[in-house]
Amino acid sequence: MNALDFFEARLQATVSPMDYLNMKKMNPDKYFLIDVRNGPEHVRNIIIQGANILPEQEIQNRLQEIPKDKEIIVYCWDVWCNTAAKVAKLLLERGYIVKELTGGIAAWREMNFPTSDTAQQEAFSIDCGC
């Protein structure tokens, strides 16, 4: 593989936080964002706003929750984490259209993009009587 092929493949397989935010604004119903991080809930309590929480270890059993008619964006912790890449590969093998959010939640937070606190979301859903 030459450098041009490498960078073309990289751009097809990934999306930057800024590009994702812009794409989502232009076409909000086209994308399905998944937080695939593993680990205790207390360390995963901050998520990207609007993300669906499907830890990598649960993906196999929860595939029915992932829509086939949307472009799937997966993210994990940071550039050093390959969990999102593992999930992307699994989903691609099953016919999904998938990209990895580069830099994970760390890059998203570094840019001060919108996040949610899962503890507050749970408290709200309990308190509101939904």
Automatic annotation (TrEMBL):
<feature type="domain" description="Rhodanese">
    <location>
        <begin position="27"/>
        <end position="117"/>
    </location>
</feature>
<dbReference type="InterPro" id="IPR001763">
    <property type="entry name" value="Rhodanese-like_dom"/>
</dbReference>
<protein>
    <submittedName>
        <fullName>Rhodanese-like domain-containing protein</fullName>
    </submittedName>
</protein>
<dbReference type="InterPro" id="IPR036873">
    <property type="entry name" value="Rhodanese-like_dom_sf"/>
</dbReference>
<dbReference type="InterPro" id="IPR050229">
    <property type="entry name" value="GlpE_sulfurtransferase"/>
</dbReference>
<dbReference type="Pfam" id="PF00581">
    <property type="entry name" value="Rhodanese"/>
</dbReference>
